[in-house]
Known about the structure:
Number of strands: 0
Number of helices: 7
Number of domains: 1
Largest sheet: none
Structural class: mainly alpha
Distance between the termini: 24 Å
Mean pLDDT: 82
Order of helices and strands: HHHHHHH
Shape: elongated
Low-confidence stretches: 1-6
Radius of gyration: 18 Å
Strand content: under 5%
Amino acid sequence: MVVLETKSKSGEVAAIVTVCLAGVAAAANLVxxxxxxxxxxxxxxxxxxxxxxxxxxxxxxSMFAFAYGSLLLARRDDIGRWVIVVAAGAQLALGxxxxxxTLVNYDSGYGIHWFDSEPVVRSILIGLGGVPGTxxxxxxxxxxxxxSATVFGGLVLLCAALPWTAAYTLARPVEVVGPNV
Length: 181
């Protein structure tokens, strides 16, 4: 009986941490999209139109995935955990792409340059801005922004993929709405 209670408590903690991190990721994507769109509206010539559109739409999709996944996970639904895994995996992949682009000094050849070079501390905060932050890291060759996006995406993915989080969703009571499949 003690073993089951310990496993249940660690599953609750893992799920709570995952829900909180996914909520922060959703908020970061929303803030990144708002900052990007506001910057575009203030000076349309500074940012590329199509890249701004796709980064903002990607941020909104990512925000929705993180928010919806955390809502489902809070309700002990395993689908929410998988939604968070996919969204965090995409965030991690974009961060790794940003690191690779910085490593090989990738230049698209289109002359797309967004915001001016930032100090390292501000670059780290930019990288935490979700999809717009990672796109900015790729465009500006900012290793600090790409690394912070990669680490944060990996942290959310790790928490969602923990076996304790999965055990938390699979051990939900019968009274919870929906089938336990």
